[in-house]
Amino acid sequence: MSSEDLIIDKREELGTLISEEQLRARIAELGEQIARDYSGRDIHVIAVLKGSFVFLADLVRAVNSDLLSVDFLGLSSYGVSTKSSGVVRVTQDLSLPIEGRHVLIVEDIIDTGLTMKYLIENLRTRRPASLEICTLLHKPDNTVTDVEMKYIGFTIPNEFVIGYGLDYAERFRNVPFIGVVRT
Ligand code: IMP
Ligand code: MG
Q1: Ligand number with the minimum distance to the CA of 49
Q2: What is the structure's pLDDT at 1?
Q3: In the Cβ-directed half-sphere of 58, how many Cα atoms lie within 13 Å?
Q4: Catalytic annotation present for 111
Q5: What is the model's pLDDT at position 3?
Q6: Of 111, 141, 146, 167, which residue is the catalytic one?
Q7: CA separation (Å) from 139 to 16, 19, 50, 143?
Q8: Is the CB of residue 51 below 6 angstroms from any atom belonging to ligand 1?
Q9: Sign of the dihedral defined by the CA atoms of residues 102, 103, 109, 114, in that order
Q10: Ligand 1, pocket-test mutation among 78, 88, 170, 178, most atoms within 8 A of CB
Q11: What is the CA(109)–ligand 2 centre distance, in A?
């Protein structure tokens, strides 16, 4: 079954790819690593909406830093289809300038990498002091760009995943684990 033909109606149709417990444990590690790496520096987190909102909420609470700030950027590369169009649309711009800030982009998933490539190029023109990426999930088999990811939660196979912020046609973002469609 190709991802364009997926039809998901109930969460019972999902298998667990990454459990709540696995998410918790890995995010605690990422948080510690980020706090260590940015020790004494500001961490200006930019969360890519909408998919990263659940990961963001857990990640920032795992980072022990008093110099952390958060801003949001709305990007959309998918319509209701599960296939990447390669066309990136800015649906909401940042509310704060990033010049001279240590920017950490928080993303739910890097699939083709086209969304992130667009975002990196866009943010670089605003002259941040540094620019790094933290993605919860990475699908290396599908990635066609050369974006450098400093923090990766989990490397996953090329399957369409849902839950923990990730949607299927705007549904299932509230599922507390990372699920896949059972075939
Ligand atoms: P990319 O541009 O192909 O890297 O895709 C980036 C965006 O597509 C992500 O931020 C997600 O919003 C969405 N996306 C990619 N793969 C999946 C998936 O398996 N499930 C849900 N959304 C996905
Ligand atoms: Mg996204």
Answers
A1: 2
A2: 45
A3: 24
A4: yes
A5: 56
A6: 111
A7: 17, 18, 19, 7
A8: yes
A9: negative
A10: 78
A11: 6
Spans of the chain, pLDDT less than 70: 1-5, 77-86, 183
Q: What percent of the chain stands above pLDDT 70?
A: 91
| Pairing mode, strands 102-110 and 130-138 | parallel
Question: Distance (Å, rounded) from C-alpha 153 to C-alpha 5?
Answer: 28
Residue 114 Cβ inside 6 Å of ligand 1? The answer reads yes
DSSP H helical ranges for the chain: 20-37, 53-62, 114-124
Whole-number Cα distances in Å, 171 to 58, 65, 129, 163: 20, 33, 37, 9
* 181 contacts: CB under 8 Å, gap ≥ 6: 1, 6, 8, 13, 14, 15, 159, 160, 162
- CB of 109 closer than 6 angstroms to any ligand 1 atom: yes
Residue pointed to by tokens 């790819």: 17
Ligand 1 atom at minimum distance from 117 CA: 2
Helices (H), 11-152: 20-37, 53-62, 114-124
- Quote the pLDDT of residue 144: 87
> Which residues, 6+ apart, have CB-to-CB distance to 16 below 8 Å?
177, 178, 179
User: Which tokens in the block code for residue 175?
Assistant: 């599922």
The whole-number pLDDT of residue 90 equals 84
Closest by alpha carbon to 133, among 30, 54, 63? 30
